Amino acid sequence: MEQQATAPRPPDDTAGTNGTDGTDSTTGPLDIEQAEAAIVEHYPRLVRLGYLVLPSGLGRNRRVLTAHALVQRSLPRNRVSLVECPADTVPGPRGAEGRRNDDPGYAYVRLRVLRGALAAGRPRGRWWWPPRPGQMPPPLPQVWGLRLFPRSGGADELALDQALGRLSPPARAAFVLRALELPADREVRALLAAAGVAEPGAALAEAAAARVPAGSRDGSLLMSAEFDPCSLQARPTDLMRRRQHLRAAAAALAATAVCGALLAVSDGGWGPDGAAAPAYTRNAAAEQALDPGRLTRAPADAWRHADRPGFASWPARGDRTTDEALLRRALSVWARPGSSVRVTATPGTPAGPAPGPPQLLYAGAVDSAVVVLLHDGLRVVRYAEARNGDATSAALDFARTDAADADTATAVVLGRTDGNVRYLTAPWVASTAVRDLLSPAAPAQPLHRNADGVTDPTTSPAAAGDCRSWPVLQLDGRPATDLSELVPARLTGGAPGGNGDRDGAAPSPAERAAWAHTACLLPSLRSQGVRAVNTWQFARQPLPGGAGTAEWLCTRAETWRGAGGRTVAQFLPPGGRPGARAAVVARAEDSPACGPRQPHVLAGALWKSPGGSWYALAAGSPDVVSITATGGVRGTGPGPVLALPAGQGAVARLAGRTRDGKRVAALK
Q1: Reduced to 3 DSSP states, what percent helix, strand and coil does the chain have, rounded to the nearest 5?
Q2: 383 with 330: CB under 8 angstroms?
Q3: Which of 149, 221, 631, 658 sits most deeply, having the most CB atoms within 10 A of its CB?
Q4: Per-residue pLDDT tens over the stretch 229-256
């Protein structure tokens, strides 16, 4: 291959420069064609530069391939703006006068090659990623099965290569540039600085102090065949190691194919799983939970002998309890719901698979669907699929029911269709009826059930967009309402911990009247995991000026998860029609007020009398013996009620005291 020689070095640092500072600055846009032409014209020179600057620790084969890769990757992707680069001389025949090279394309690609070679010699941090160019084998060019390296030189060339290997990367670059490229130290320093060297002066000093063979600093040894990565020899790689690597790769590929085939093959041991996702694990308990033959079933009269009747004592009912294919699909979808399955869960209810074989409560056709009800001790789960046999899409609903007893495990929603709802009632329920909460004086309407305890469809309040009526399910006289969940919420009345509906008795006329005033609060409790809602009239207050007697009501919703309870205080002025909606005057979230743990309540309201006067009213539960108002209205009064003159818009801060000296804070 034709070799190029360096031009003789000028006698001092100022010779051969354009301008007064010894550098030639070229700025402006550079076309890709200019850079490509420079690479093609000076390819051997650029590859030699990269080969010499790259660290010798890479090995000659990898240095050759990396040097070629650095030059080939120096081509810009698009038009670039040139940075200030020092000028150089284009080498002519050895001994000829050098001439200035004003080609900006060559200056640009040389700078990129130099940067890449220097980056390859920098130490890599332990967690540094990604690697710098040249620190990893280049993607191109690649040579398989052969090792390439330049021809061997003499003793001087070997000594020079060893000396260059002992230099730091910046010093090695300074030595090569000074010998082959640039005639002046000032130009070398400028090019090193442009390539990212922090201390180019120190690099030049280290290069000048290097002990190298004679003839190295004028470039004659560097231009020998020992350092020519374009004139190469080829030898085979380690044949025995290559054979071992091929065998190991073939074995790994075969193992991967076998594992992929095993994972891709669907398990057909239990038959089709409907809308369930593919199986992903094997576990004894998980497999038992998926086996329909291991479903638990309570005896028909288990509820009669249970210490605490609940869902665990419900017998399995329905006309499909022996349909193993249906039960298998329900269990599989529960364990692995696919993307087409609509899954819902009340707040605080885990939607994971059953820990073991669950209990079967119901399996049968309900209107246009086939429904399976299951219970695992913590949750009631409803699986539904189309009745026409399409099992590719399904619905899965979860409701938390831990600690359910005979009062709260009375019914489960089987299905909803066109605004109507069907319930499956508990085996101990003797009668079912429907009553409108907003019409307390109207009689309840009987609701028919079949032999399995499935009711006829009845209007669901969950679908109503207004509050003109609120039909509730009455089970043995005790009301429960559908709040868009699987288990209807129980409705109770009376003081917390008292003897009202909480002991199992039907609500009294006064409690039904209280529900008529507060029923329109129930829509805000939909899909909140509500277990029971209690309302009670905690105070009656004679109004100033003989305006009549007002009623104070407190409504509290408790959840299955034990948190997220809501308390609402309401004020009902006199003279309203039966079932008139009470005004909400205070609310509390996650508060024990008005509940069994803290059966105290205190609330206030600003009321305008028929004569136009404003009063600050306050009322507490019967155990409140005094109330104090501060802030915008001040005053104190004995007993559970207080009325003070106030201005329009006045805000009072209320506090009460119970018989045993406890302080009661007002709801806000």
Answers
A1: 25, 25, 45
A2: yes
A3: 221
A4: 888 888 887 677 777 777 888 888 888 8
